[in-house]
Amino acid sequence: MITIDEHRARILASVSRSTATERSVHRSAGFVLADDVVSRWPVPLFDNSAMDGYAVRRADAVEGAILRVVADVPAGCADDPSFGPGEAVRIMTGAPVPADADAIVPLEHTDLGTEVRATPPESITVTVAPKPHAHIRRAGEDAAAGSVAVRAGTVLGPWQLSAIASAGHDRIPVVARPRVAVISTGSELVEPSDTPQRGQIPESNSVLLAAAIVDAGAEVGWTATVRDDEEALVATLADADVDAIVLTGGASVGSFDVVKAVLNGTGSIEFTTVAMQPGKPQGFGLTEAGVPVFCLPGNPVSVAVSFEMFVRPALRTMAGHPTIDRPRSVRRAATGWRSRADRVQVLPVTVDEHTVRPAAPGGSGSHLVTSLAEATALAVVPAEVIEVFEGDPVTVMELR
Ligand SMILES: Nc1nc2c(c(=O)[nH]1)N[C@H]1C(S)=C(S)[C@@H](COP(=O)(O)OP(=O)(O)OC[C@H]3O[C@@H](n4cnc5c(N)ncnc54)[C@H](O)[C@@H]3O)O[C@H]1N2
Ligand code: MOO
Question: pTM of the prediction?
């Protein structure tokens, strides 16, 4: 048996960041930026008003001054009206500040207050004198023209995307998301909507994996369910045309374990046992075409755990994510449970702020698929521990 770290290291040494592709900023949420994005202009673009009010010359906008309103500058207006001593220009939030102005008097600091008016008044009386440059948002105070707005390697969320749009870009270079094929193998598998006959079970691994792949920041190319038949599996693999393939089932020592029979020795694909419970039988390698292939054991909890430990970090590496691992923290066991000697136990658990307990009341079991629904984390119990006692500190990988 090899360790989790050894298997993971072999996988991570075989995958690399995908190439960059251009995408619209409108459709790039969750992608990773491939190159720095530089601001095409200063942000803000021009000096503009932070308030609805009046652009004034500060020298004559003293308390009690009566100013004649000679022009109106709504947002979007390109005018730069000139005005002289004793005059003011009505201005709205975001509108360019006239070159003759050096302060804004907000509506509230005039005798007329905030009452809505379609047209500017003839004059206003200043009730509070403005400070120098009051309520003027300076061109370039947020970012200089040519400065980096968002750095390469940043995960693009709503805040980063708005910064890019403000910097003047629609098409942006992002790391391509790996397209992943999912193949569930097993002659016992039927559609979830079918009523299983004796010996049959609903196929759930491809459902789990498709959702997990998307959650990891990759794309599902296609999914397929294949019976335990070598020819059928070979035919399905021939159509792959994807960046990675994840198979479940048939990875162990059973007489009908077709995945191992078909793939062992293809390209660099090797089957091994990992000192992990569940998820002991594992296969991994690159096809002759260089496509990473993950062969996971068929048990649903083994699939969940194997994905988290091996597939997710690899897909996130390919998608360019700066963090490939779940955050780890330590909780106290709210109840005790047993762990198998010589294998690291990776147990679906529910956590609250301070404690951790098995998601399935009985503890571990690679077939306990329904209990997975309760899990919010995975506990990682070292190989040398055979029993966790109530109150023990336990390391957990939080699924967030
Ligand atoms: N003699 C031995 N038997 C087994 C060993 C062993 O070392 N010696 N290892 C056990 C361990 S550990 C695991 S894990 C399993 C892995 O077996 P396979 O990868 O060959 O998986 P299958 O036999 O195909 O399936 C296991 C289990 O999971 C169910 N399954 C499979 N696919 C799906 C699916 N798509 N959706 C839902 N459920 C699925 C399947 O019906 C089986 O119950 O081998 C042990 N045996
Ligand atoms: O390793 Mo198996 O995955 O125990 O269930």
Answer: 0.92
